[in-house]
Amino acid sequence: MVDNSFHTLTLELDTGTVKIKFRPDLAPNHVQRIGELAKNPDTREVRLAELTSFGWDRFFIFKPGTKREEICDFIGAKRPNCGRVIRYEFVPATHVALVFGLGSQLTHTELHALANGRFNLPPSDRGYPKEAAVFKLRRALAGTEQELWLEPQ
After folding, report:
1. Which residues are registered as beta bridge partners of 8?
2. Three-state SS string across 38-80, please?
3. What span, in angstroms and rounded, lies between the C-alpha atoms of 106 and 150?
4. Which end of the chain, N or C, is less surrounded by CB atoms within 10 Å?
5. What is the dihedral of CA 56, 60, 65, 69, to 10 degrees?
6. Cα–Cα distance, 70 to 84 (Å, whole number)
7. What is the rounded distance in angstroms from the CA atom of residue 98 to the CA atom of residue 91?
8. How far from 91 is each of 2, 69, 72, CA to CA, in Å?
9. pTM for this predicted structure
């Protein structure tokens, strides 16, 4: 019997073959959950590991305007496989891209709306370890709008 509960994408990288199992049944809305928590006035911190149910040990953040090719080069994915993983030409101005990895494998990528919280992290070539993915929620007024900031603990 074939297990159709996930889809597998195979990437041929310079460092070897990577198989990515997409599990929409496990991780369909973790970015939405970040936004729900961030907008809840009772929330003081967001623990990213508690919102995800796929395997990962580090994550990367790509700023608005980052082109798909830049993300693919950074993670070492070759065309045309990269286009199957990163399905947008560039990160929209209102979002950041969250890219999760486990060991040498890419395990998940998703666009995160800045309205659901802005990550206040310095750039990192190595990504951020899962243990560091605990964020204090800070609310700030920007004119008449409230901005939400996710700051490392």
Report:
1. 21
2. HHCCCCCEEEHHHHCCCCCCEEEEECCCCEHHHHHHHHCCCCC
3. 23
4. N
5. -70
6. 15
7. 10
8. 35, 11, 13
9. 0.74
Asked if the bond preceding 80 is cis, omega within 30° of 0, the reply is: yes
pLDDT at 42: 83
Q: Is the pLDDT reported for residue 63 higher than 80?
A: yes
Q: Residue 81 in 3-state DSSP?
A: helix
* Contact indicator for 29, 37 with CB cutoff of 8 Å: no
User: How is residue 111 written in tokens?
Assistant: 């666009």
* Side chain identity, residue 134: V
The per-residue pLDDT for range 109-131, each reduced to its tens digit, is: 889 989 888 998 888 888 899 99
Q: In degrees rounded to 5, what are phi and psi of residue 49?
A: -60, -30
Residue 109 CA to residue 20 CA, distance in Å, equals 11
pLDDT of residue 57: 93
| C-alpha dist (Å) from residue 100 to 3, 65, 118, 138 | 24, 19, 17, 24
